[in-house]
Amino acid sequence: MPRLIDHDDRNDEIGAAAFRVLVRDGIAGLSVRKVAEEAEIATASLRRAFPTQDALRRFCFDRIRHSVAARLRAVTGEGRERAMQWMRELLPLDDTRRTELIVQLQLSRLALTDESLRGSAADLHDGVRRVCSSVLRQLSEAGVTDPALDADLETARLHALLDGLALHLLWNTSDDPAGQADRVLQRHIDTLSV
Hints:
By secondary structure, the protein is mostly helical. Helix content is 76%, strand content 0%.
């Protein structure tokens, strides 16, 4: 009897393997052959799912987007705490988020010169901007921020802060990177208050 393949499970394995290759070997090391080897599947099987490197790269972008979106939907609470949790989800504060950021940076670097990936990179960038806008809306509804704030400017400022903080945390050797990130984020929120 032929073996049934759960395509979602197989794609999860392929995505995890592609992430490991990108973190270990960088964008230059991402090939169908290397990912198939890492996932311990036949190259022909991987090519059926992802016939080109571009398809595999776009899948990696999508995997990040779906993972982050699922974590953001799972956030509970209200007001300042909810806003803090949303911002934390965009920072490399654990192995999963650190890996996602490294993969995003590797692929985004390529997207600067590869038109076929530019849309996927822009989608992630725009997603962060939407989260920043939601954070500010959450803070405003909780009465934390000054009602006279320029929402567009503050969204751009928060986006820049989160992007910079994320890169900083990749190189951070602190014993408490989450605490350090929280202090920076709390201080930023304090500057927005009435």
